[in-house]
Amino acid sequence: MTPQRDDVAPEDLEVRSARPEDEPAILALCRASLGWRQEDPNEAFFRWKHRENPFGASPSWVALHEGRVVGLRTFLRWTFVDGDGRRIRAVRAVDTATDPEYRGLGIFRTLTLKGVAELTLAGDGIVFNTPNDQSRPGYLKMGWTLARRLPVGVMPRGPKSLVAMATSKVPASLWSESTQVGEDATLALAQPEFADEILRHSPTSGVRTDRTPAYLAWRTSFGPLHYRILLASAGDPGGGGVVFRLRRRGDAVEAAILEQFVPNSRTGVRLVRRVLTETGADYAIGLRTSRSAGLVPLPKQGPLLTTRPLAASPPSPGEWALTLGDVELF
């Protein structure tokens, strides 16, 4: 275990917005404090999230000691649309890192509150995230509130898959399993005409992500995640489809259903079943919304959505209509 510095006080740190020239030091900090493995594409993933996002580059703050970056706090830009079609400027509290030698100085809290104050002045509406059990208490102390538990649903491939699902109570792998089922979503959704057609079946109610062809192209573009899209009718995105990826969870392989762009529930059920049959995944998992189909509720199993006002009030708990594509990974 790295010993903590006992000769540094919080007032010895410089706290400021991150600058482009800080990126090498930020990536080095993430490697040291977040356990990034050399064989994983974490640096490319970081840049994909925070530099290529069509909603905008991620605002970030750093803590420095004697010119050395020892803390990071990053917020991912996002845009929602409410039930009346109005856009909500939002940020998601995502990556945070503290140099192991500088823990215990309140860097996480200082950087987070600095970011919240400056984002509020800039006119961003709300901040949201789905923190784990370890970090959630810290957020609640900083003004976040519990909005709701997001409703998870599953579809097992068959009776034997129920056993695999029940015995794989570990976090899912970040990186995906490769499959040739369906079409390469990166290539398909990079075509604006294809995306326009599939978006005809996009959700139209509740507070949901502002889905555009540019958003879909970016969201499915990171190659190591192997996103696929299975269409109801081959070559015809106008008939609807589901976006998915395969990931390992313990001994089971699950099909993560990111989006169901379907004209009706019958089509949705058929497509999810096809994903399972054609990939051999043990079960499908996703968030249940008015547009989801075939996913059986898993009571008390979904992530907890938390929100905090910035320059606007968060939506009421019942208004949220998020999919797995909105919350996984980040």
TrEMBL record:
Residues 13-170 form the N-acetyltransferase domain. SUPFAM superfamilies: Acyl-CoA N-acyltransferases (Nat). It holds the Pfam family Acetyltransf_9. PROSITE patterns: GNAT. InterPro entries: Acyl_CoA_acyltransferase, GNAT_dom. GO terms for molecular function: acyltransferase activity, transferring groups other than amino-acyl groups. Residues 1-20 are annotated as: Disordered. This is N-acetyltransferase domain-containing protein.
